[in-house]
Amino acid sequence: MFPEAYILVGGRSTRFEGGEKPFARFEGKTLAENAVEIAQAALPGSNIFLVSRDEDRVVGEACRLNVGQISDRIV
Can you give the pLDDT at residue 51? Predict the structure, then answer.
């Protein structure tokens, strides 16, 4: 059984200037992409998931990065 990695990419970005954090670019890649690459290097073969409160905004990035996506619903 492979380990799993959950990367929290949600939040309101209230203290972050420049838009939504998962889509901000750093050294030519989105922050979400950088986090996924680090998780893949640390846990080869693992299932990786992006966790966010707004599925619609992150599902495209999860598909582009070939990782899963989980909605963190506040009830």
Answer: 92
φ/ψ of 17, rounded to 5, equals -90, 130
The whole-number average pLDDT for the span 7-21 is 75
Q: Kindly report the three-state secondary structure assignment for every residue of 12-68.
A: CCCCCCCCCHHHCEECCEEHHHHHHHHHHHHCCCCEEEEEECCHHHHHHHHHHHCCE
Token pair recorded at residue 15: 């203290």
Nearest C-alpha neighbor of 62 from the set 26, 54, 3, 44: 54
